[in-house]
Amino acid sequence: MALSKILRQLTQLYLTASCPLCQRNAPQILCTDCHRQLLGCRWPSPLSSHSATLSNNRASTNTTDLSVFSWGQYRGVLKQTLARLKYGNQAELGRWLGRQVGQEWCTHGPYKTQQQMIVVPIPLHSHRLKQRGYNQAALITKGFCRVTGLTMAEHGLIRVRSTDAMHSLNAQQRQTNVEGAFQVNPNLRTSTRSILLMDDIYTTGNTAKAAASTLTQAGYEVKGIIAVAQAAFSSPQGG
C-alpha cells in the first residue's frame, strides 16, 4: 500500500506541469500563488474602458472615439506573464489569458450580445512572426472567441510595414512609426461590418488607432479594442 501510494504521488508529480513564472507545480497553466497575484492586477471595475481619439485620416480634423476595454493593469505578475508569452515561447499563456478576458466579457462586456461582431487581432509583421513563431494577439483572440462565441478573423488585418519597438520611441516617433503599417485583407468578410480589435497590451494607443483607422477608411465600424493589460498612465483612472 505504501509503495502504491508513493508511485501515485510520483506519477502525479510527473504529469503536473510547471508554472511558467515560478516553475512550481501548477494544476492549471499558472500555480495557485501566481494565479492569485495575477487576479490582483485586474482593474477594480471589470473591463474598465475609456475613449481614445481616433482620426480617420491624418489630414482630417474629424475625429471619433475608440473605446478601449482592458482586463488589468500592466504591472506585476500580469506584466511578467505577458513577457513570457511574447519572449519566452509560452504560447499556451495566450489562449489562457484570452479565456480569462472572455469570461469577463461574457459578464460585463458592453457588446456581449452582438454575436455578429468580428474580432480582429493586431497582426505582427511577417519577419517578427517568423522570429517569434506565433502572434500573441491571435492566441489571445482564439481563447477569447472560444469563450464568447464571437467570430475571429485572424488575418483580417495585414501588417505591411515592419515597425520599430515602441518602448524606445518618443510620442511623435510612435505615431510616425505605425503610419501606413496596416492593410485590410481583401478576404475579410464584408457581410458584417462591426469589428473589435484585440491586442495584448495597450499603452499610448498609437498602434490601435492606426489599425482602427485603416479599418474605418475601408468602411468598417470599429467598436473598440480589447487589451489584456493597459499601462497605468493610459488607464481610465489616469485619463
Task: Give an overview of the whole structure.
The protein has 239 residues and is of the alpha/beta class. It is 38% helix and 23% strand. The protein has eight helices and ten strands. The strands form three sheets. It has a six-stranded mixed beta sheet. A two-stranded antiparallel sheet has the order 1-2. It has a two-stranded antiparallel sheet with strand order 7-8. Strand 1 (17-18) and strand 2 (25-26) form a beta hairpin. Helix 2 packs across helix 3 and helix 4 (92-108) crosses helix 6 (136-148). It starts with a helix and ends in a 9-residue tail after the last strand.
* Helicity, as a percent range: 25-40%
Unreliable stretches covering 5 or more consecutive residues: 9-14, 55-63, 235-239
Oligomer status: single chain
What overall geometry do the principal axes of the alpha carbons give? globular
The neighbouring-strand order within the major sheet is: 3-4-10-9-5-6
Total helical elements: 8
Radius of gyration: 19 Å
SS-based structural class?
Answer: alpha/beta
> Residue-averaged pLDDT, rounded?
81
Order of helices and strands: HEEHEEHHEHHEEHEEHE
Distance linking N and C termini: 63 Å
Largest sheet: 6 strands, mixed
